[in-house]
Amino acid sequence: MKKNIFVCLYLWYGGLLAQNLTDFDNQVENPSSNFMDKTEFRAGYYGNFYWNPGLTFGAEYLWKEKVRTKEKKRRTKIITKQWLLNGTFGVSWDPRTELGVFTNYGILWRRTNTKGKQINIQFNPLGFYRAFLPETYEVSGDNVDKVFLPGRNYYAPSISFGLGKLRKGKKLTGRYLNITYMLRTPYNANSLPSFAIEYGYRFNFKKKRKYAKDDL
Q1: Model-level pTM?
Q2: Fewest CB within 10 angstroms: 110, 133, 174, 183, which?
Q3: DSSP of 36-76, one letter per residue?
């Protein structure tokens, strides 16, 4: 039953994102027909508050953008709000218990001010976590057999909140520091919550579009 619910959630959310992308993509200011112009990639460190280091790699596709300009006496204030489709792949290692591999997908909201300072809020309802356990054996009667790739699969949605900085004119287009909350379920008879810190950089393989009036 849980597996059926999980599959239905993936299909429903994937269809919703595809529909929204078709219906609203024309609302993006400064639209580009080139997929790469709208896509940024990122890579960074991922680790729990206790000893549990890891890495994440991801991509962000610009879905919608709204730029608000306000004239002041000494300068122009520009606030940019973006909605991005987000996908992440990561690994984490706990020397005591397991090696974790995870992936998640969702929506990211980002606000950038005139100085390039950013606020990031990320909601990933589609998440999968695979825990690979140390050497494990299975006992069946008088037979003891080594288990091939022992581990467990989990549904693992997550949310993140963080700060960042746009790096104008740099190959690394921005940096970020996020706090991420992930919920792995089912874990034994319940769920397992975890917090992690993410720190890394965003980059683009093509030259970024120009911001108005060199605001950032």
Answers
A1: 0.74
A2: 133
A3: GGGEEEEEEEEEESSS-EEEEEEEEEEEEEEEEEEE-SS-E
Helices (H), the chain: 2-24
DSSP letter assigned to residue 30: S
Contact assessment for residue 72 and residue 32, using Cβ atoms and an 8 Å cutoff: no
Q: Report the amino acid identity of residue 76.
A: T
> Which SS3 state, helix, strand or coil, does residue 212 take?
helix
Tens of pLDDT, residues 191-211: 989 999 999 999 987 654 544
- In DSSP notation, 184-205 reads EEEETTEEEEEEEEEEEEEE-S
Report how far residue 84's alpha carbon sits from residue 28's, in angstroms, rounded to the nearest whole number.
Answer: 11
- Domains (ranges, CATH) in the chain? 2-215 (2.40.160.20)
Of the candidates 211, 202, 207, the one whose C-alpha atom is nearest the C-alpha of residue 40 is 202
Assigned token pair, 212? 């108005």
